[in-house]
Specification:
Elements lengths: L4 E7 L2 E10 L3 H9 L1 H4 L5 E3 L7 E9 L2 E13 L3 E6 L2 E10 L2 E9 L6 H19 L17 H12 L4
Antiparallel strand pairs: 1-2, 2-8, 3-4, 4-5, 5-6, 6-7, 7-8
Protein name: SRPBCC family protein
Family: Belongs to the AHA1 family.
Organism: Paractinoplanes globisporus
């Protein structure tokens, strides 16, 4: 399991979490995991009403056990297999896929709607991309969402990121 590189910075007046992870698969394979609803349902914190492969409105549904929360989303740009940009509720997510000698460098820039949740969001993406990495490697573990994350080290990750980000204020 590769450890992500995570920072938190002011970007055009908003705070953006920058999450970088090295994956062993080529960008085309990672792109499918980021855009195909069936793939997203195996690793991400939400399900998607439709493919995220072309600009337009859709719905992303947060899942926490039996609870579902629909959030409006708009795909602004989808350049297969290198760049995906969409809103998720009031947040904006920009995924960049860069080919490397050993696979793909995945960079997520998650611009947050408000301050104070960056450590929680970082811990969530950390767990989700752990699951993504295992899925892509052919060793799926099953999606980890909502309260289930508490059983998989989310609180420890949140505390670690909170300590890391405390120097950013």
């Amino acid at each position: 399991m590769t450890e992500p590189d995570v920072t938190y910075a002011k970007d055009d007046g908003s705070w953006t979490l920058v999450f970088i992870r090295e994956l062993r698969q080529p960008p085309d394979r990672v792109w499918t995991a980021l855009t195909d609803p069936a793939e997203l349902d195996k690793w991400s914190p939400f399900t998607a009403r439709g493919a995220l492969t072309s600009p337009g409105d859709t719905t992303l549904t947060m899942v926490d056990g039996d609870e579902r929360t629909d959030l409006p989303a708009t795909v602004h740009r989808a350049d297969k297999p290198s760049f995906l940009d969409y809103t998720w509720g009031d947040d904006r997510l920009r995924w960049e896929l860069e080919p490397t000698a050993t696979g793909t460098r995945l960079t997520l820039r998650h611009t947050l709607a408000g301050p104070g949740i960056e450590a929680m969001v970082a811990a969530g993406w950390h767990l989700c991309t752990d699951v993504l990495e295992r899925l892509l490697d052919g060793n799926p573990t099953g999606v980890i969402r909502g309260q289930d994350a508490m059983n998989h080290g989310w609180e420890e990750l949140r505390a670690r990121y909170e300590k890391t980000f405390s120097s950013y204020a």
